[in-house]
Amino acid sequence: MKHILYLCFAGLVVGDRIRYGDDVPVITVKNGSYAGIFTPRYHQDFFLGIPYAKPAQRFSVAERLNHSWNETRPAAAYPPHCYGYGPDNIGYEMSEDCLYLNVVRPSKISKDAQLPVAIWIHGGGLYMGGSADRRYNLSFVVEQSAQMGKPIIGVSLNYRLVAFGFLGGEEAQAAGATNIGFRDQRLAIEWIHENIRAFGGSPEKITIWGESSGTESVTAQVFAYNGQHNGLFRGAIGQSGFGGIIPRLPGGYNATALQQEHFDNLVRNVSTCASTVGTPHALECLRNADFRDINATLSQMPALTWSPVLDGDFLADYSANQVSNGRFARVPILIGANSDEGTGFGSGKGPDGGSFNTDDDIRGAIQNFISPTAGIKTGKSVDDLLDQALYLYPNIQSAGIPTLKTWPHVLQPNDNFTQSLGLQYRRGNAFFGDVYMHYLRRRANLAWSRYGLPSFVYRFDVTVNGKPEFTGATHFQEVAFVFYNINGDAYTVNPFGGDDHAYSRKARALAKEISSMWINFIVDQNPNGYQHQSCESDRWPTFDPTDGGGAGRGIVFELDHLSVELDDWRAEGINWLIQNDLALIGN
């Protein structure tokens, strides 16, 4: 296995002097000892590239480490990404041997310090990403926590992606090789729970945390085995995507016919395995095939081909059923989404992968998206369901996203924006943003409240530097704020930069407030406690659907201030999705 030390990753900045000798931090876990890195710039220790499992066999569930050693092993370089196919993997080493994690802690803490622990699970659609991504720089958050007098330990991890982590089909189901990526995460969380004391952390104070498909992963851990989490974590943070499995296939994550089709296509296109399609030998053939053949085939298949699977084991049931009867880990949650998520999810769903211009364009996209059995399950015709969707998501630009406040331009037939975005751009964004992100979040807040559990909801409403107004507060843009990455490390355009110095000043102040709230939740299971300079309310309220006449309240992050708001925007459409989600999208 080849490890590369990126001097600018996760708190290691180019020019930062790395000390060895007496300053080398050494810890001893159950299997043996590791030597990390001390950086004086942040006064932190890094333990990088620590294995949490045996080197995994392809398309097989990973196994726990069961050997020990006497020597001190180096933990000084980030591990390669797991193989994936997308821009987040460009420029990073990749390997099938990728099941490693990284620990960032304040330096010179006692192993008896019992610090709270935040486990970061990266996003990337379950088809790209990795723990070495410099945008996920845990040093800034750990530093912020120390300055607040609430020090934490940060951990990031890799897990298998695309077919390597989310293979479907009867063969994978029979072999127990489903949801491998989620099972990787679970094994990493178990390793952390067993060994974090050696780093000065508390196994009783672990919070799991993610964004996008990282949040989907957090959801999977909260719902896994019908909510049996065995005390592995005490809280969860989900940025954009908490509450269910993000829809990828018509019919949801029990679209068994499509999953089988994708498995057979993979086998068929790996030349040495083509003859095993439909036989009991297909999976074993893929496990032993030349990686170059597997890689060449997967790189040509659509990224969203591979989806989590309803396997009756790790994912025992539809999330709709689990939230309705309380089969989830009973832990506090902090969850939310960005105002204009749909600008990242509505694009390209029009005719021939284009934009939305007519009612028929929207209607066709929704019909292609919903379950083929939606009419049977609801007792309504598909046409009636489509009529309801179009009524609840009307062609009214002020009702779509981004709002006219965020982007004042009114789309007109044949204007320059309409040519590229589509006349019904805002309408499509509103529907698909709610389907992918917003309705799941509200459904979870309602369920947590119903079972007397604390939950906190936010809405991020900032169009960041470098993003055009027509995208608004789109997907992923809160990440730099949460990580307090105010230098824009690894961003093509610094979200906090630009010529508008007033914007930069306000954005940095907002990032400090948001990151402090996340730290408060990790430490206290409550985001309140930091002195908010711009908040119009003394506290971020616990979500309670009896507030505001049935809406509930959350916090909205805007550039100029924070404020408490009713959770009632697009309420009719979102509540319709909640009422019909299992039948419509199999979630």
TrEMBL record:
Domain of life: Eukaryota
Keyword Signal: yes
UniProt-recorded Gene Ontology molecular function terms: hydrolase activity
Record's signal peptide: 1-15
Gene3D superfamilies for the chain: alpha/beta hydrolase (3.40.50.1820)
EC numbers: 3.1.1.-
The keyword Ubl conjugation appears for this protein: no
Domain annotation Carboxylesterase type B: ranges: 25-546
Alphabetical list of Pfam families matching this protein: COesterase
Enzyme class name: hydrolase
Keyword terms of this UniProt record: Hydrolase, Signal
Similarity remark: Belongs to the type-B carboxylesterase/lipase family.
Protein's recorded name: Carboxylic ester hydrolase
